[in-house]
């Protein structure tokens, strides 16, 4: 894994904090980090709910990036509490693709050994 990916991986791991919020809500089993086009790293955790209205760590990190006035993602990494890298789910892929034409070039970490894919390669039929 390159130094840059290791930094993103470490940022994602740093926010993992499994916690039962209530009988119906759990958070923090997955941490994510996104690298913006300006070089800033934003993090987020998953929020799981009994009614399925929660959201993934990747979208949480992207929301933090948007909140800070940045809108272009360069890289994304999600890590489960056991340290394994998790590729983004379909909802996260769709969400990222809708951020603009450059979204096809977002690099996604798909394995702890440093393997990556371009978002456009795992969403080949997407028409922006």
Write a structural description.
By secondary structure, the chain is α+β, with helices and mostly antiparallel strands. The chain has four helices and six strands. Strands 1, 2, 3, 4, 5 and 6 form a six-stranded mixed beta sheet that branches. A hairpin with a 6-residue loop joins strand 5 and strand 6. The N and C termini lie far apart (31 Å). The model has no long low-confidence stretch (mean pLDDT 95).
SSE order and pairing:
Elements: H1 3-15, E1 19-22, E2 25-36, E3 41-49, H2 57-67, E4 73-80, H3 90-97, E5 107-109, E6 116-118, H4 119-122
Parallel strand pairs: 4-5
Antiparallel strand pairs: 1-2, 2-3, 2-4, 5-6
Protein structure class = alpha+beta
Q: What oligomeric assembly is this protein in?
A: single chain
Uncertain regions: pLDDT < 50 for 5+ in a row?
Answer: none
**Please, how many helices?**
4
Kindly provide the radius of gyration, computed on alpha-carbon positions and rounded to a whole number of angstroms.
Answer: 14 Å
How would you characterize the largest beta sheet? 6 strands, mixed
Shape: globular
Span of the ends, CA to CA: 31 Å
Q: How are helices and strands ordered from N to C? A: HEEEHEHEEH
Question: What do the pLDDT scores average to?
Answer: 95
Relative strand content: 25-35%
Task: Please give the number of β-strands.
Answer: 6
Q: What is the percent of helical residues?
A: 25-40%
Compact summary:
Helices cover 28% and strands 30% of the residues. It has 128 residues and is an alpha+beta fold.
Q: What labels would you give this structure?
A:
alpha+beta, 128 residues, 4 helices, 28% helix, single chain, six-stranded mixed β-sheet, globular
């Amino acid at each position: 894994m390159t130094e840059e990916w290791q930094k993103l991986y470490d940022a994602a791991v740093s926010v993992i904090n499994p916690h039962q919020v209530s009988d119906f809500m759990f958070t923090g089993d997955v941490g994510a980090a996104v690298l913006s086009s300006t070089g800033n790293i934003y993090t987020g955790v998953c929020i799981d709910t009994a009614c399925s209205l929660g959201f993934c760590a990747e979208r949480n990190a992207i929301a933090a990036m948007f909140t800070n006035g940045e809108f272009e993602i360069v890289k994304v990494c999600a890590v489960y509490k056991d340290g394994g890298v998790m590729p983004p789910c379909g909802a996260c892929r769709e969400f990222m693709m809708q951020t603009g034409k450059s979204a096809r070039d977002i690099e996604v970490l798909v394995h702890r050994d440093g393997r990556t894919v371009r978002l456009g390669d795992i969403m080949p039929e997407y028409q922006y």
